[in-house]
Amino acid sequence: MREPARLVLLRHGETAWNTELRVQGFTDAPLNDRGRWQAERAAEALAAEGLSAVYSSDLQRARATAEAVARAAGLPQVHADAALRERAFGRFEGLTYPEIEARWPEDARRWRQRDAGFAPGGGETLEAFSARCVPAVAAIAARHAGQCIAVVAHGGVLDCLYRAATGLGLQDTRTWQLGNASINRLLWHGHGFTLVGWNDDAHLRAMDQAPPSNTP
How would DSSP label each residue in 130-152? Predict the structure, then answer.
């Protein structure tokens, strides 16, 4: 039996839209100052992890977080993959939850209820999103049996991976936390994912030292 691949999964650092509770999706929002601080703290926490490679969504909030991790690990590059992007939310992007509720109450209801076959106008269904990102991470892991790699992506991507590892359905209510720049761990055995640890934020607990969230 081949040794499993060890996956260190990170959600990107904070953005201004995170603090405003605006839907980001494919919109290429940058990290704010606090997000850059979070990325550096996560990179420091993983510097001695023995990472063989760092993969990332090609959106800049994930890519900037991944580049900090790669630098700290002494790796020369980040492997960007568009399949690791956040779910496409179409006309929802740039809006807050109350704004979406006011404009499209039925769409908001289906989204809130995690209707796996629902897609916002111009966006993706949960089913299509999961079918895009989970196999992409499995394919990456399959190339790194016996190694430890980092994958930096988005809350929705990591949510799908948590469900894949625990057997929960796409429509099941989320009961777990997933903070910006948190560290999450899975194993890939060649036939599926196993959950090892989730939402480790010990490296971020000195938040009083971080820049305020409202800095660009």
Answer: HHHHHHHHHHHHHTTTT-EEEEE
The secondary structure element, H or E, covering residue 56 is strand 51-56
pLDDT of residue 208: 63
- Enumerate domains of the chain plus CATH numbers: 5-209 (3.40.50.1240)
Enumerate the active-site residues: 12, 86
User: Residue 161's closest CA among 93, 83, 89, 109?
Assistant: 83
Q: Rounded to whole angstroms, how far apart are CA atoms 4 and 11?
A: 22
| pTM assigned to the model | 0.94
Across 93-103, average pLDDT? 98
- Give the other-Cβ count within 10 Å of 3's Cβ: 12
Copy the structure tokens of residue 195: 């959950």
Interval 38-84: pLDDT, tens: 999 999 999 999 999 999 999 999 999 999 999 999 999 999 999 99
